[in-house]
Amino acid sequence: MSDLFRLDGQGAVITGGGRGLGRAMAQALAAAGAGCVLVARREDDLAESVKLIESAGGKAVAVVGDVLDPEVAPRAVAACLEHFGSVNILVNNAGQLSIAPIEDTPDEDWQRVIDVNLMGPFRFCKAVAPHFKAQKSGKVVNIASVLGTFGVGESSAYCAAKAGIMGFTRSLAVEWGPHGVNVNALAPGLFNTDMSAGVFQTQPIYDAIVAGIPRGTHGEPEDLAGTILYLCSKASAHVTGQVIHVDGGATIA
Ligand SMILES: NC(=O)c1ccc[n+]([C@@H]2O[C@H](COP(=O)([O-])OP(=O)(O)OC[C@H]3O[C@@H](n4cnc5c(N)ncnc54)[C@H](OP(=O)(O)O)[C@@H]3O)[C@@H](O)[C@H]2O)c1
């Protein structure tokens, strides 16, 4: 049974692999045998992720770039082919958040949040498409959020983008099902990363959010390891177009 979760000989591209959830998911995939290509803008963060993976016996390389640069997705796929021989897994994790009332949200902030969270995955899916179709297999995991399922105020672009990525996931799952490619979304609840630092630094906000989590606490990045491994491995062979919430029960309470 444990073979179901092995990824030996596979190549994985993980956007936003420089820190936070992307780094933890890359560590999980590398520990299962995948060679990982990590994409982000900050070179020092990427170097640290590569070091952590290699020191645990895994394989990883860094591609420095912005997911909105049209050259970056093809470059990441080329790096995956060059270093690991194939591209089998794509984790669209790079994301950004903007918090402000709608009338105080500049158009550029709205557009940036929509673009990073939606255009980025679109570009990376386009880049893996010929490879996944030719080999008649592949796994795409789009990182959504519970905020694509329920709303919070002052986060209109983020909630729209994360709901959008769920629709994108379902459409591509239908389109690529006949090609043997699984496309799913993983929707985290509150996790302890740089992105959510504002919540962790403001006790009343943290307490209010945790009060709505049946398990009574937030997640740590390593809590995603099992779910990402499941969605990227043979274990999820017949699962596609789904949104799996990893949120301590926040969306069912
Ligand atoms: N933390 C949470 O509670 C939570 C909850 C639900 C969903 N999520 C989602 O989970 C994903 C990861 O979030 P996180 O908490 O790990 O965030 P994080 O700590 O801020 O890390 C985000 C990663 O994405 C990269 N990134 C951001 N914009 C990029 C761009 N334009 N091009 C390339 N890389 C970019 C960042 O690297 P650079 O800045 O170096 O580019 C960084 O490596 C996001 O999609 C987020 O929306 C997080």
Write a concise synopsis of the structure shown.
The chain has 253 residues and is of the alpha/beta class.
Which terms would index this structure?
globular; alpha/beta; 253 residues; binds NADP nicotinamide-adenine-dinucleotide phosphate; 7-stranded parallel β-sheet; 8 helices
Report on this structure:
- This protein has 253 residues and is an alpha/beta fold.
- The chain has one domain: Rossmann fold.
- It contains 8 helices and 7 strands.
- It has helices at 20-31, 43-55, 72-84, 107-135, 156-176, 197-200, 203-211, 225-232; strands at 11-15, 35-40, 59-64, 89-92, 138-143, 181-188, 243-246.
- The protein has a 7-stranded parallel beta sheet, sandwiched between helices.
- The structure holds NADP nicotinamide-adenine-dinucleotide phosphate.
- NADP nicotinamide-adenine-dinucleotide phosphate (NAP) is lined by residues 15-16, 18-22, 39-42, 45, 66-68, 93-96, 116, 143, 145, 188, 190-191, 193-196.
Write down the overall mean pLDDT: 98
Radius of gyration: 17 Å
- Largest sheet properties: 7 strands, parallel
List the ions, cofactors and other small molecules found in this model: NADP nicotinamide-adenine-dinucleotide phosphate
**Helix fraction by DSSP (H/I, runs of at least 4):** 40-55%
Distance between the termini: 33 Å
Total number of helices: 8
What is the CATH domain class?
Answer: Alpha Beta
Arrangement of strands in the largest sheet: 3-2-1-4-5-6-7
- Category by helix and strand content: alpha/beta
What count of domains describes the coordinates? 1
Find the count of extended strands (DSSP E, 2+ residues).
7
Could you spell the SSE succession in H and E letters? EHEHEHEHEHEHHHE
